Amino acid sequence: MDRISIWKNIVIAVLIVYPFGMQWLADLDQARGLLWFYLHQLYYVPVAWIGPPLVVPDSEVGFWVQPSGRMLAAVLYLALVMLGKLSWNLRKRKIS
Fold first, then answer.
1. Of 71, 88, 75, which Cα lies nearest the Cα of 8?
2. What contacts 25, CB < 8 A, 6 or more positions away?
3. Residues of the chain with pLDDT under 50
4. How far is CA 52 from CA 32, 47, 55, 61, 78, in A?
5. Whose CA is closest to 84, among 22, 18, 12, 20?
6. pLDDT score, position 4
7. Per-residue b/e over 55-87, b at no fewer than 16 CB within 10 Å?
8. Would you say 10 and 21 are in contact if contact means Cβ atoms under 8 Å apart?
9. Which residues pair with 64 in a beta bridge?
10. pLDDT of residue 9
11. Which of 7, 31, 70, 80 is most buried, by CB atoms within 10 Å?
């Protein structure tokens, strides 16, 4: 494995595990639970603007993420990583 694919796999793993980690920290650390909750919400902001099928607006916390919103966010972030890998390969070919 080359160095770029190792980093790509690490980034993909972090993007998949991040929301679970923030939710776990919010439950574990009650003193800073709001901080962890908002970091968890920050992960879903790119899909939050779509609205009710993916997230449910709430005046108290901003929005609640539905399972379909979680899936779309994961697919969106995975697509961004793959697009970055594709552009990296194209740039590498132009240089060589």
1. 88
2. 32, 36
3. none
4. 28, 11, 5, 15, 23
5. 12
6. 63
7. beeeeeeebebbeebbebbbeebeeebeeeeee
8. no
9. 56
10. 78
11. 70
